Amino acid sequence: MSKVKNEATIKNPIVKAVREQLEHRALWLYLLCDEAGKRGLSWEDFGSAAVKRCGLYQVHFNRLGDYPKLQAALGFDAEHVWSQLERRAFLTAFYTFKTAYDKLTQSAPPVTTAEALLTWLHAYTLGDLRVLTQAELERSIRAIWPELEAVAQGGKIAVQTEAAPEPQSLLGRLTGFRGCLRAAFVYECAPEASPWIAAHEAGRRQLVQALGERGEGFGILHIDAHCDLRRAYEGFEYSHASIMYNVLRDVPQAERIVEVGVRDYCDAEAELARSSERIRMFDDTQLSAAAFEGETWGATCRRIVAELPERVYVSFDIDGLSVEYCPHTGTPVAGGLTFNQAVYLLHETVRSGRRIIGFDVVEVVPRPGSSIDASTGARILYKLCGLTLKSEL
To answer: Does residue 7 sit in helix, strand or coil?
Structure first.
C-alpha cells in the first residue's frame, strides 16, 4: 500500500494564508470538542443541532450576536431552522449583494459581506435586491458606507448636532442636507395623559407649517387608522382628530393629502374627503377589496403614489398598522396595514423618484413587559431615516 503524502503543491501566498486559517479553525474545533468531552459532553449530542441552526455556512460575521440579528431582520426568530427553499432564496439575494459590494471594495473591504448586508437591511429590504438595478444597488451601498466604516471601528457612531461639510452620522446627514431638518416624534407616555395628545399633534402641526412657510408645494402621505379631518374634537380645535383639517385650512402649500389605511371616521370627515380636490383617500375597505379581487400590493402602491406630488412629507401614525404591531397605542382599530405593506409603500414612494422632505412618527406607546410597540416604532423611524437619505440620491 502506498503512503499518502499530504504536502501542499500550490505555493500561492493567498492560498497558503487561507489554508493556515482552515487548519487553525480545525484545531480550534477539535480542542473545543475535546474540552466538552472532559466535562462529560459528547459532540454528537450538540454538534448536529448547532450545524442545523447555523444554516448558512457561506455567511460570515466577526461579531458575536450578528447572526441572530440577521435572522430577526429577515423575520425569523433566533431558533429558526432554515428550510432548503429559504436558504436558496437568501443565498441568491446574498450573492447579488456580494457582487455589487465586491465591485466597490476591490481593495480591503471595511467589513465582511454579511456585515455589510446586515447594515444595508436597516434601510432596505431583501426584496429590493430583486428589483434594484446594479447601478442602483451600488449607489445604495455607497450611501451607507460611513455606517460600514463605523461598524468596522466597533459600531460607535458620533451624533452631530451642527452642520458639517461632510457629516458622517445618520442624524448629521439628515439634518445637514440642503439645510432641511427631518424630524420624528415618538412619545413614551400613557395615552390617558393629556399632554401626550397635545404634544405630538403640536409637533406635527408646527413641522408641516414650517415646511409650508418655505413656499414650495408638497404632498402629505398620511398613514393612519383615522382621517384626522374633524373641525374640532370635544370642543378642542387643535386635537389629535383635527390635524389634517388644520393643514387644509392653514397650509395651502400642502397640495395633496393622500390618506392610506384609514378605517375609523365620521360622516363629516368622509364628506370632506369626497368633496375636496386636495384629498385622496385609500381607506382600509378599498385596499382590502382590491386585494380580494386580485390586485397586487405593488400595483396598489403605484396607484397611491401616483396621487402624490414630487415633494412628499410622510405623516405616520402607528395605529395605521394592524393592531398586533401597536397594541398599546391610544386608539387602536381593527384592520390596517401590515408592517411590510407599510414599508413597501414607503419604498415605492422613493422608487418613483419622489423626495421625502420630512416625516413624523406618532402615537407610539411602549409599555413595561411588552417590546412590540417600541420595536415597531423604532423600525419605522429607522426605515424613514434611510429612505429619506435614499430619496436624495
So the answer is: coil
